[in-house]
Amino acid sequence: MKPNNTPPPDITAVHITEDRLTFDLQDGRVVSVPLAFYPTLMNSTQAERNEYEITHSSVYWPKLDCDLSSECLLQGKREARKYAEKSLRS
Q1: What is the pTM of this model?
Q2: 44-69 per-residue burial string, b: 16 or more CB within 10 A, e: under 16
């Protein structure tokens, strides 16, 4: 099987509630996952969560050094354990 060379969809908006992370995508889809999938975001303050940069298919939180792509959410990927553990020590 050949790999899919289609780039991930661009992110147009980010929504974070107490328990959900949601991306609005340029193709009209909305993808949402439990915030618990990303302990770095879950353990951060609201002010830290609100400071992010959208660059095409990626969102970056500079104060948290956290970067997530639309592809990650679409695939239901969780934060890597080493980053999740680091957020608990911070």
Answers
A1: 0.88
A2: beeebbeebeeeebbbebeebebebb
